[in-house]
Amino acid sequence: MDSAVFKENDFVWAKMAGYNHWPAIVMRPDPDAPIKTIKEMQWIYFLGTHNYAWIEDKNIKPYEEFKLQYKKKNTEAAMEEMDDIINNMSKDPDYKISFAKYIARKPSPKKQKKSSGLNSSGTPNDRKRSFPLKEKNTPVVKKKHRSSTSNEIEDAIKTNIAASISEATSGNAVGTPGLLTVNTVNLGTSNKFFGFLAGSIYSEGILKNLIKSKHKLYVWSRSSALLEELQEYADRHQTFFKTCTTPRQVVKTADITFSCLTDPDQEKIVLNQLGITDKCDDLLKGKGFVEMTSMDPETSKDFHDLITKKGGTYLEAMLQGNKQEANKGEVIVLAAGLQPLFVDCQSCFKAISKASFLLGKIGSATKIHMIFQMMRGIFLASLVEGFVMADRCSIKLEAFNNIFKMTHMSSDYLEHKSNTIVSKKFTSAQDTEEPIEQLQTDMTLALEMSTRFRQPMPLASNVNEILKNARKLGCDNHDSACIYRTRF
């Protein structure tokens, strides 16, 4: 939406990275507010949480027009506050409101740097607005604002990471990961050179988001068609982009290399090409290596040991999401490993995801990823059985789906799967968001992990058999919703 559309005191829905759209107010920037990084941004006050941030225009929507679409349980309190304000304004055109004073955090003596917008709440005072609120305008409440620069992100991480996931043992619970959320609103694109080994279904979407955000890339893929398409895309965006003929060429020229391949076996082949077994090969020395290939914790630890012995640094970064979310830059990055490497990748994670978390030592992220994938499979199987039963009862699936999407059981993931079931578009490569081969492989890894911990998983075991049956019938590259067609 064009920035001219938004005016001071407009009621809006505003979206900060990692959060859903939230009731908010467009405000006049405070004199002490951080400097906005691009022109198309608005200074936003969030109702309910009473936080401030610069938000891009593309993440702002009119309040009344999108009220039903963005209404969620966790926004009810903020919506109630907004509705009270609107109601008071309709009754009294001169309605005024108390607000808290905005206070920008002063830089520490050691780091006299520009502030950029990490929020914290403030304390209200009784000052009134100096101008009356009109029916079309919005009362503004100000709160304290805490800020940080992109160079201070590492310090923010150090003080915000909670206890890492512990090594699970029989009878002991897994530790709670710190839900690290770093405010990257004013974080610019890194000036480092990034490499990318592209092989999975998510690679294209991830790379296009990195290109759009002006990251400097060296890319290798076995698909020449993909490389040609990405080169054209980069040329249109006038971004530095070089294709490489081998993984070695990528790692040699890049500071940090992301590896997003189909499975650990492919990763082992690539690592051998990088000289991982050659004592005299120092290609990985001083290089960062970010593993995005879905794998089990033990394999990730093995890769970590191999790379660090060669003088490199290693970060596992599992991608929780599907192809559509990767295309939109809305996956969740579950990372584990070295904090400095995680910090160096923040601008990339901002471009490709809606949130990124550093969860502790190597193996932590893969464990959580496997559990989430197991849950995906169980949710999907439950949905499919419901639609199978509806079909057997001669209920029109279109009507059944419409009702399902209105219930609290619905979610973006299940809604997409239910639409796929109704449309029966299981086989099209364009419509495949989650290949059944990948989901079944992850289910198997999750079950192997449950065996090591002696944790029964009866639902996951049954779902795995359903997925295996679909693969036996030749559906490896079909969307996972195809189990509706391959049901017993």
TrEMBL record:
SMART domains: PWWP
Residue ranges of every copy of the PWWP domain listed in the record: 8-66
Subcellular location: Chromosome
GO CC entries: chromatin
UniProt keyword terms in alphabetical order: Chromosome
Chief location: nucleus
GO aspect biological process, one term: transcription elongation-coupled chromatin remodeling
Official protein name in the record: Cytokine-like nuclear factor N-PAC
Species of provenance: Dendroctonus ponderosae (Mountain pine beetle)
